[in-house]
Amino acid sequence: MKLVFATHNKNKFEEVKAMLPDYLELLSLDDIGCSEDIAETAETIEGNAILKADYIRKKYKLNCFADDTGLEVKSLNNEPGVFSARYAGDSNNANANMEKLLKNLEGKQDRSARFKTAIALNMEREEIMFLGICEGEITEKPRGNSGFGYDPIFQPNGFNKTFAEMTLEEKSKIGHRGKAMRQLIDYLSK
Ligand code: IMP
Questions:
Q1: pLDDT tens digit string along 142-152?
Q2: Are 105 and 76 in contact (CB under 8 A)?
């Protein structure tokens, strides 16, 4: 069965492809000749995942899944959430995003936060949503050099390391994206 992963991100694509059973032929957006960036105009993380998967399903008539992730900080009314990539402007600058978040949290007691990954699967006869959540807190300062985005300031509950101080394997085991991906893979393997 052919299945499209609606992403232009080669790292994400290879990571997921390695986890899937052989009978699934995973195709990237490049593989199906889709070079455009699908606009993420929904108001929620789930909405953006659905929007991307639906777009591909309708336009190319292929089974497809898409993901979207955001960081929700409790005392900031769940910001940056769906705006995580663009929190400090359109350039998706991780340092500027982290700086803005730390500034907005100054003086707040509650630093709890969670990462949420939504994966929308859109197949001919079914549409299913998988959610992966990782609870934690925002540190006072960035720590560690691995990962990307907000990793240096996010410490998952039960650990004294930030995501950026973990290996990719450690992070995938407990992280939001790994949790959502494993649900998708379980479902597709059945
Ligand atoms: P995307 O939906 O995976 O492109 O994620 C949107 C934005 O959320 C990224 O640009 C990052 O700023 C942030 N983000 C997503 N996943 C992670 C993560 O695992 N660690 C840190 N930041 C992340």
A1: 999 998 999 99
A2: yes
Q: What's the pLDDT tens digit per position in 123-147? A: 988 999 999 999 999 999 999 999 8
Containing H/E element for 53?
A: helix 45-60
The verdict on whether omega for the bond into residue 80 sits within 30 degrees of 0, i.e. cis, is: yes
Q: Is 68 a catalytic residue?
A: yes
Among 37, 38, 45, 71, the mutation site with the greatest number of ligand 1 atoms within 8 A of its Cβ is 71
Put simply, whether the predicted model's pTM sits higher than 0.90 gets the answer yes
Question: What CATH number belongs to 2-188?
Answer: 3.90.950.10
Question: Ligand 1 center to residue 34 CA distance, Å?
Answer: 22
Active-site choice (30, 37, 67, 68): 68
Q: Hey, is 131 helix, strand or coil?
A: strand
What are the domain boundaries of the chain?
2-188
Residue 177 Cα: closest atom of ligand 1:
19
